[in-house]
Amino acid sequence: MARIQLEKVTKKFGNVTALNGIDLDVKDKEFFILFGPAGAGKTTMLNNIAGIQIPEEGVVKIGGEVVNQIDPAHRNTAMVFENYALYPHMNVYDNIASPLRSPLYKKDEETIKKAVDRVAKMMKIDYLLERLPSQLSNGQKQRVALGRALVREPNVFLMDEPLAHLDAKLRNAMRTELKEIQANFETTSIYVTHDFMEAMSLGDRIAIVDHGEIVQIGTGDAIYYMPCNEFVAQLMGDPEINLIPGTLKKKENDYFFTLDEGVAEYQLPAEEELFKKLEDSESEKVDLGLRPQHVKYSFEPMEGFLKCTVYSYESIGNKSVIIAQYKNLQIRMIAPNGVTLKLDQDIYVNFLLEHSLFFHAETKEYISRYNEAGILALEKEQEE
Q1: Would you say the CATH fold of 238-383 matches that of 4-233?
Q2: What fold does the segment set 4-233 form as a domain?
Q3: Residue 240 and residue 166: Cα distance in Å, rounded?
């Protein structure tokens, strides 16, 4: 139906380059995520696909056809914004029906009624059809906006942070429904978000966007386990990954990692493929990446554990996050709820190095990680 391709697309606003030579290929019927911080260029990319903005350079293709000179109304795309943009004087039925009453997509009223009823039931808002937008909750408004976009079955469904204004519980429920809706309609969907959980739970593939460029494209698991650099590693995870600067030293056939902050030295578990990549990198200085769930702690001294102090403690739902301080280094770890501790008290920390990632200390680029071959094999199996 609608494969979407961007080829060397550049978009500027005065002296600011919002998109810098973007290359992107979204497969037909794929649920594709644009993920990155605010101001990265995600919405600009969406606007160039929709035709709201025209690139200075490069080509936008939808279904193999170059659409740079085709106006938005004729691209057969539907867009949902962070702002619901409902017509305040129309009830829910008429809001959803409005695209099918436009001159371009005009249908007879019987066809419109069938389409509206079908979408309303799918969105679970069929009992709201007579209400005005002012009589709806934010979650209901969002469903109406989604229904209006879906009612004419577009080839391309573009969503710009549509769940941003919803409360946490409703946002979680809508994530599940969005995925189901997209599967039922079999449309190509591009979804913009800066929420890590949305990106991981919704996307078939994710593009990481930063400063108008695509940094990495892959499945959520591939990017999470093998981020291309430290920026992506920090973006993909909550709580954020620990990046621990240190020095690698090879002694005979083993590698040892020494923290820059102090003299603590750790022998790395042996893995021939990893050791070869570390050697090929020709970098003694590295940043060791460890997810918070791979850091263990004790409130009593234990052999091999690093003595730190409690810097902060935060309870977040079904778990807690402890941040320990070792000199100028802060180390995040996950703890169960109900842990009793005090700020500045002693805590002893140990690293599960068999889960560690390695980044070049100067370039911040990814070098390798433990069990990289296994993760790549699993990724290939999932694609097949």
Answers
A1: no
A2: Rossmann fold (3.40.50)
A3: 24
49's tokens:
């696909």
The residues spanned by each domain of the chain are: 4-233, 238-383
Whether the Cβ atoms of residue 193 and residue 33 lie closer than 8 Å to each other: yes
Peptide bond into 72 cis (omega under 30): no
Residues 275-290: tens digit of each pLDDT:
999 999 888 899 999 9
Please provide the CATH number assigned to the domain covering 238-383: 2.40.50.140
Q: Which two tokens stand for residue 252?
A: 């005979």
**pLDDT tens for residues 215-244?**
999 999 999 999 999 999 999 988 999 999
CA distance 50 to 334: 42
Residue 341: name the closest of 327, 326, 324 by CA: 324
Starting at the edge strand that comes first in sequence, how are the strands of the sheet with 188-193 ordered?
77-80, 156-160, 188-193, 31-35, 205-210, 213-218
The answer for 21, left when phi > 0, alpha when psi is -120 to 50, beta otherwise, is: left
The torsion angles phi and psi of 333, rounded to 5 degrees, stand at: -150, 160
Tens-digit pLDDT profile for residues 149-186: 888 878 898 999 888 777 777 777 778 778 777 777 77
| SS3 category, 260 | coil
Provide the token pair at 61. Answer: 């293709």
pLDDT in tens, 32-58: 999 999 999 999 999 999 999 999 999
Q: Are 335 and 297 in contact (CB under 8 A)?
A: yes
Give the number of other Cβ atoms within 10 Å of residue 342's Cβ.
7
